[in-house]
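[agent] plan:
  1. take the single chain provided in the ticket
  2. run structure prediction with default settings
  3. attach structure tokens to the ticket
  4. add a short note for the reviewer (M.T.)
[agent] executing step 1
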Amino acid sequence: MAKKKNTITTEEFDRRFDEGEDVSDYLDWDNAKRPGLEQRRVNVDLPVWMIGSLDMEAKRIGVTRQSIVKVWLSERLKSEQTAAAKNR
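[agent] step 2 finished; step 3 output follows
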């Protein structure tokens, strides 16, 4: 793990970032995290016809079954959240 080359204040970092400077030398990429995007495994039992349909659609667009399931679930969840927000 490489040591950070430079250290600056938060205010200086923000200013440089806002001005479009490359601030990557001030980031510790080895310890970067993406909050809320950690992975957890789930098991879902699906009927054979549904798996076949998922596989055909995944093949048609050139992605894996897992990818298409993730994308479709994400789209539906966003749609539901948008609808719920409108009904408040």
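[agent] step 4 note for reviewer: The two ends are 49 Å apart (CA to CA).
[agent] ticket updated
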